[in-house]
Amino acid sequence: MVWCEEVDRVVTANNWRDARIYTIVIVYLRGAAANYYEEEKININGWAGGNAANNLRDLLIAQFALDSTKDVWYSDYLNC
Q1: Of the candidates 12, 47, 11, 9, which has an alpha carbon nearest to the alpha carbon of residue 29?
Q2: Angle at the Cα of 18 (from 12 to 24), degrees rounded to 5?
Q3: Mean pLDDT, residues 48-71 taken together
């Protein structure tokens, strides 16, 4: 998802730690993403830390990205 990639660029530019970005990101979630977060927040432990089952970044991608986009994005992500 482009939005997640933009967040990652801001994180890098500002040298923010996972806990800080997580706190900031949840404030900007709207609509379905905000509802999804509210339902899953007990299971989420950060923005990109941990594994895909418990970080908000990967959960948002899994929930909202189109399947064709997921394949391309994860391929690029794994090659980083």
Answers
A1: 47
A2: 85
A3: 77
Domain residue spans of the chain? 2-78
What's the pLDDT score for residue 65? 81
CA 5 to chain centre: 9
0.85 surpassed by pTM: no
Secondary structure element (H or E) that encloses residue 77, with its range: helix 67-78
Could you say which DSSP state residue 80 is in? Answer: -
Whose tokens are 């994005």? That residue is 73
Range 43-50 average pLDDT = 87
Residue found by looking up tokens 């991608």 in the block? 61
Residue by residue, DSSP assigns 1-68 as: -HHHHHHHHHHHHHT--HHHHHHHHHHH--HHHHHHHHHHGGG---SS-S-TTT-HHHHHHHHHS-HH
